[in-house]
Every structure is written in structure tokens, then in C-alpha cells.
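Hi there. Long-time user, first ticket. I'm pasting a complex I've been working with (about 643 residues overall). I'd like to know whether the download I got is complete or cut off, because the file seemed smaller than I expected. Thanks.
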Amino acid sequence: MAFAITRSKARREWRLYLFVVPAILLVGTFAYFPAASAIYHSFFDWSGGDTKQWLGWDNFRRAFGDDVLWGSFGTVSLLMIFNVFKMIPSIIMAVLIHRIVSDRWQYFYRVMLVIPMIVPGLVTLFIWKFFFDPNLGVLNQLLDVTHIKSLLVWVDQLFGWEVFHAGVPIGWLSQPELVLPALFIWGFPWIGTVGVLIYLAGLQSIGTEIYEAADLDGVGPIRKFLYIELPLILTQVRLSLVLLIIGTVQGYGLQLLLLGASGGPGGRGMVPGLWMYNRAFIAGEFGYACAVGMILFCFILGLTLLNNKFVRIDK
Amino acid sequence: MSAPISSPRHRRRDGGKHLVVWLFLLVELFPLYMMLQVSFKDNAGFIQNPWLPSPPVTVTETIADRDGTQREMTRVARWREVFSGVESDPSRRVVAAERSWDPTVYQFGNWAFGFKLILPFVANTVFVAVLGTACSIFFALLGAYFFARYKMPFSGVLWSAFLLLMLLPGVANIVPLFVLLKDMSLLNTLWALILVGVAGAQVFNIYVLRNFIEDLPKDLFEAAEMDGAGHFQQILNIVVPMSGPILGTLGILAFLQKWNDFLLPLIVLRDKELFTLGVGLIYLDGEYVKQWGQIMAAYFIASIPLIIIFLFMMRLFVRGLSSGAIKG
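Hi, the file is complete. Here it is re-exported in full:
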């Protein structure tokens, strides 16, 4: 803890306040002021300039009747489910690496895991966009080479989806029905470097004797995972779950770059953050965008409180 | 770290685990592999052979046209042709075919072009990221020292104000932030990115550094004060030397974050000369006729600074990624 300080000493040490002034100024100007401004302007018809007109609750009333916004919350919920599912490979990977006996191999695998991190996220994103390209894209070629495409076409004809056609390249990002599946496939095999490293750190606390005891009792690998490993990384898993959910709800960079500001074909990839971006910078409705931002903000705040209540993180 | 199981009976059973981990890793590293190998091809070479790097061999075919004239066509050999004979398209009348060793198959021009294309963007990003990281660590250090050293009057209130910000999602801020930057006439400047970046990193950095400084032995500060050291000197001579690794970790996290940022640059920057990597890559993506080889080379060049950091600071990097995520 910090030293207690008497009032007279504090008066003599007034210069210490200068130390925190830059931080306060920066945070005040670039974090608190915009937040306050967002709340204030969500009640106005405002296009970013000096003129604005008081609307009262009209922006919010409009938002609650806005089908795009409601649809986008549906999309983001679906993405959230996807992302929770995508946590599984990282956990499996961490447990596998942890169970490997050789220390040297463990270290080697860790290094290999960090390698994808040195590629900027944006580059990874564009490489995936390139994979999704209908004509040159790797994904379509892979499906062709492995004949999964003909299987897909067959299934398509069976159910009458009208999505996959023989001889026509699959437009992963241009066919409305395929936008969400493409977002699901995105990032396969879904191994998050940070996630695996955190889980490995948690697993390190398991002593050899626990495994030996489990071996004596004849516990199989799956029950070892359920009763020994999972409980120990549960804190980390819950923490990444919380971060993941909040990140998914407020994120829209991926959708913006893969699908564009209007959420791709048919707006299927529209998420709330992207709708806010779209309203502000495409339509110029800054006031309405602020209102959408406020709704999103309340939604996230609610999720955070819910998380804190039900998913306790003991540090 | 200690290996959980060490009897030889189990050692034999590790084969399956290695296999699965390798499978995962191969798929995980596949995009990287594609980036590297496509960067040495032109579009035609990529369409002909998308999966493997080209062999350094070309085939020169002499084709007889209908009117009797002969012309020569040179193409990159297929891998099969390197090991067995040349396979020619029967629909064209190939009179003769010849294989020859030719390293110019690899389009090094892609890399030269990529460099020219992306180096200005990299320079801008380095400027923003280095200055931004240095400033954010410096100001955070000062702020954290203020909170950690004494319980000054009002420091409790200020601390709560900082922590409150950590709870608030920043998503609603971007629209008013844009207008604020416009009013400060910072739009279309790199300073906007630096200032906003520094401000955004403050809370987290101060939070981590405060906890760290509070754990330092109090006697050191008292001794320094006895010797008449000012607060700034105490930071320089006590805090900085003792918190090297954590400063490095925070610095790397800040640097990575600035390197990857694209939303703010996309909104703020208009002139092509000022583009950072984020906007620069998006701009490249918007070109109509795409030479994938050049673009992939540019992507790889965009990663080079991170690779350099990675090589020199591997341990900090790994630790930074795990600890940062735990505390975040």
C-alpha cells in the first residue's frame, strides 16, 4: 500500500500532483469527454457540425423500432455462440502440450504457437479474405481438390438450399446465406496464442503426484481432463470467456474489413458496432449513431455486471 | 516447468499427442506458408500451382502454328515435370520442349515492389508506435508513482475515476472522438493517433504499474529521500531499474496494439502520405487488379518489425502475452 501522509507534508509535496496531471489531461480529453459528448449528443439530431437540434428521446425511440439494429443484435449473439465454441481447440491444445513429457518439445511448441502472433492481425485478416476469394481463393480450391464441394452440392440438392451449385465458385463473402458460415470458418483452427499460453500457465500448477495418483486409480485421459485439468484452468477459461463475450459484442473491425460498412450482402454480417459506424460515417447521422452507441454501451455494461455476478473471478 | 508424467511407459504413448499438436500447428501456420510462397509468384504462376512453391525450372516449348511458323513459349515447370519428362498440352502442336534451370522463376520483383509500396506506411507506423509507446509508458510511470508513493488527498477519488473508465466499454466513444479531433484540427495528422493511443493505454498501464511500484521495498524510497533525491530522481533511480521486465512487457503490448490498430487511422487519416499500415493495407486491398504476389510480399514486409522484436525479446514477448491477458 501507499504511504499514509499528513496534511502538512502533502502540502509540501504538492509537486507530486504534477506527475498525474498528464494522465488526467489525456484521459479526461480523449476518454471522458467523448463519453460525455456521446451521452449528450444522443438526444440531438446532429451531423457532426455546430448545428444540432434537440430531439428528446426520438433517437432512442427510432432505435427501438430499427430492424437493422435488432437484426444486428441477433447476429452478434450468434457470433458469440460461435466464439465460445471456438475456445475449445485452444483448451485441447494447451492440455495436449502440457501432457507431453519432454520439456524441450513443450518449449518448442510454445515458440511455434507464438509465431502466428508476429504477423499483424490485419495481415491475418486479409490473408483470410484472400482465402475466401471465389475464383483464386484457397478455400474453394481446397474444397474442389478434396471433392468436399461435390458433397456440398449433393447435400444442397437434397435439402434444396440453392446455395452451392456445381461448376459455380462459392462466393463465401458475396452470397448472403454464406456470410455467417464464413465468419464461423474464419480463423480455423481457432487456436488463440494468448489463450493457450494462459491455459498452460494455469496447468503448470498441477503437480506430478496428482497424475501419479490418478494413474494408480486407473483414471483415463478424458476423466483426467474433467477432474484434474479443467478445474485448474477454470479461472482462466472463465476469464477468457468474459473477455471474449465483451470483445465480440463491441467488435466490428472484422466485419468492416471482410464485408464492408454495410455488413456485406443483405447486411447479414451487420453487428451493432458496425451499424453505429455506418450511421455516423456513411449516413452522417452522428446523433443517431451516438444513441446506437449508448444502447450498445448499456448492453455491454449489463453483460459485464451479469458476468461479475455469476462468473466470479478470484485473482 | 516440471513434466507431469515421466515413466517410460507413458513416454511411448506421447506419439499421438505429438501428432495432434503437429496437425493443429500445421493448419495454424498454413496462412503464413501461403503468404510466403505466394509472394514469390505472379498471378499466372499462382493459378497454375497454388499449393507449392514453384520449382526453379522453366520449360521452353517450341510450338508450330498452323501456317508453319514456329514460336517459343516459356513457362514455369510443374513439379512432376522436374522429376519425369515434360508433359505438353496435346491440343497445341509442340515440336520441341526443353527444361532449363532458371531461378528467375521466383518473382523477387514482388518484394522490391512491396517494399516501395509499403515502406512509407511502415515508416509512419513506426513513428506512431514508437513515440506513442514511449509517451504512454512515461506518463503511466509518472501517474502510477503518484498513486503508489503516498496516499495524497484526493488520490482515492482520482483512482476511482480511473478504474471506472476500465469498466466502461470504449465502443460508443469513437463517433464523438472523431468530432473532437476535428474540432482540435487534428484530423489527418499522425499526432491524433499518438495522443488517442497514449490516452487509451493510460488506465491499464497505471493500474499494472501502481501495483508493481507498491510492492517495491519502502526503505529504498526512504533512503533516497534522506539523500535528498526528488521524486523524479526516485523514479529514475529506483523504479525504472527495478521494473525493467514489466516496463518491457507493457511496452511490447502497447507497441503490438498500435501496430495492429486500423479503426482509428481509417477514420482519422485522409492523405496517402500519412497512412499507417492499418489504412495502407486496407487501401491495397481496395485496388481493382490485384497482383497477389506483390500484396503478399507487402504483407510479409509489414510483419518484419514485429519479427525483429520477436527475435530479440522472445521471452518478454511470451511473458507479456500471458501476463497481460491475465491482468486485462
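A couple of notes from our side: Chain B touches chain A through 97 residues (CB under 8 Å). Strands of chain B lie at 57-64, 70-76, 94-101.
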